[in-house]
TrEMBL record:
Calcineurin-like phosphoesterase domain residues: 52-269
Coiled-coil stretches noted in the UniProt entry, renumbered to this chain: none
An example molecular function term from Gene Ontology annotations: hydrolase activity
Pfam families hit by this protein: Metallophos
Protein name listed in UniProt: Calcineurin-like phosphoesterase domain-containing protein
Spans through the membrane: none
Organism: Mariniphaga sediminis
């Protein structure tokens, strides 16, 4: 159950104590009011309407030797440090993994399990391409490893609606031959058009998911909610890591003024773009470098998105257009 805002807490306390409160001398009323306000102000977890959460991307752990700048084995230690940091912040309501928790070997999920069990917050995953780069016979078990009853979903917290997408709806890693054929057709077309995102390591949103997304945005718009979208793949800027059906997805987002934030991983160097009132933030990959970490804490308020980066991750303060 969410902690009530300070105003609501004050009203609750007043309503519970009003009978006795009226009978107190004026000096005692003043003292009691000050004490109660101090308790409300400094109670851990109360953030005056703000929403706090942690986020990381591209851990890509596996028991594999280092390849270039990717230190796969060292990712478990960095993830453990990241989780320990999040656990210390009592204001964080939840944590989001932006995809690629593991790399290639399915056993990587098992090896990483003791680290993930240390987290004391609700943890939400969006699937990345490397999460599915396991033995084909085991791909159907990946959603269970990521705790995903549904591959795309959403929830509301205060005046924000959080949407979690599956960028692997259309993918070369699908177990459905028809989906693989669709992926081949899309990438062939993108390459012929000279688009930089034709690469097989990307993915796309299927038609059913796009229709679901539009319903989510329409409902949020009707209810005057702000929307934050999480996906493994970037939408802007257009580059070699961008979602395959970027144009269609972007056109959909542009129809709704409620969308304020798109958070993703995939491109380990990170990136940023601003378009149509939406901040597109690409977090840096945790797997890069031997010891320097990369993760962030995010604070959402009515007028700003504040990103506090740690390690290689940048800090940003982004205005929210009303």
């Amino acid at each position: 159950m969410p902690i009530p805002t300070p105003v609501f807490q004050w009203l609750i306390i007043k309503s519970l104590t009003w009978g006795r409160f009226r009978c107190l001398p004026m000096r005692n009323k003043y003292k009691l009011t000050v004490i109660l306000l101090l308790l409300i102000t400094f109670t851990p977890g109360i953030s005056f309407g703000q929403i706090h959460f942690g986020v990381f991307a591209d851990c890509q752990f596996c028991d594999c030797k280092t390849e270039g700048s990717r230190y796969y084995r060292d990712s478990s230690g960095k993830l453990a440090d990241c989780i320990a940091h999040f656990n210390k912040n009592k204001q964080l309501g939840f944590v989001v993994n932006l995809g690629d928790l593991i790399d290639r070997d399915f056993e990587s999920y098992t090896l990483l399990e003791p680290v993930l069990k240390q987290i004391e917050k609700p943890l939400f995953h969006v699937p990345g391409n490397h999460d599915l780069e396991v033995e084909p016979a085991l791909r159907s078990q990946v959603p269970k490893e990521l705790g995903l009853a549904e591959m795309y979903h959403s929830f509301q917290k205060e005046n924000w609606h959080f949407v979690f997408l599956n960028g692997n709806d259309i993918s070369f890693l699908s177990s459905d031959p028809d989906v693989v054929k669709k992926a081949e057709k899309i990438t062939t077309r993108l390459k012929a058009e000279g688009k930089p995102n034709y690469h097989p390591w990307n993915g796309g949103l299927g038609q059913k998911q796009l229709e679901w997304l539009e319903n989510q945005l329409q409902e949020a718009e009707n209810n005057k909610l702000k929307v934050a979208v999480f996906c493994h793949y970037p939408l802007l800027p257009l580059e070699s890591h961008t979602l395959w059906n970027q144009e269609e997805t972007l056109a959909l987002l542009e129809k709704y003024s409620c969308v304020k934030l798109w958070l993703n991983g995939h491109n380990h160097t990170g990136n940023y773009a601003f378009h149509h009132g939406i901040h597109f933030v690409n977090l840096k990959g945790m797997v890069e470098t031997k010891s320097e970490n990369a993760f962030a804490e995010i604070v959402l308020s009515s007028g700003a998105i504040e990103i506090k980066g740690y390690g290689r991750e940048e800090s940003r303060k982004l205005p929210v257009q009303q």
